[in-house]
Amino acid sequence: MNIKTREAIILILLCATALATAGYALLQAQRRIVATVTIKTVGVGVYHDASATLPVTEINWGVKEPGSVSTYPMYIKNEGTSDVVLSLATEEWNPPEAVNYITLGWTYDSSALTPNQIIQVDFVLTIDSNITGITTFTFTIVVIATSTS
Predict the structure, then answer these.
(1) Which of 77, 98, 124, 145 sits CB 3.0–4.6 Å from 52 for a disulfide?
(2) Helix%, strand%, coil% for the chain, nearest 5
């Protein structure tokens, strides 16, 4: 094999490798999911800080991969005048089928909060590894305080 043939083969192999790498990167980029949620509260406040001075109205989860689990720490303050327990719900999923692949949980232990009490709670977002056709989604987190009395 002469030098020109070897150079041509090496060039072809380099091009094939570059194309394969670019194709893989494109495939991976198409599987990434951009996640943003809004937060609505009833009877409590949700904050970024333990002093409850920086309210949270939205969480930008950033770019997530299928199969990923992400946590977002927050502080919840009982802003009412009686002891409460909290409940968590979601609504307004866009696209609606995202609810079949994405779950939201939290680390709240169901204990009662006294008036003005602040607790740290982590929200946990889980993206199913089998998610397809969804590259961006939004939904609303609803945190509800219910009086224990």
Answers:
(1) 77
(2) 25, 50, 30
Q: CB under 8 Å to 57, separation ≥6 — which residues?
A: 38, 39
Handedness of CA 98, 38, 149, 122 (dihedral sign): positive
Q: How many Å apart are CA 32 and CA 134, to the nearest integer? A: 9
Residue 97 DSSP code: G
Average pLDDT of the residues of the chain: 86
The residue type at 68: S
Give the end-to-end CA distance of the chain in Å, rounded to a whole number.
89
List of E strands, the chain? 33-42, 44-47, 58-64, 69-78, 84-94, 102-106, 118-127, 136-147
Cα distance between residue 46 and residue 30, in whole Å = 33
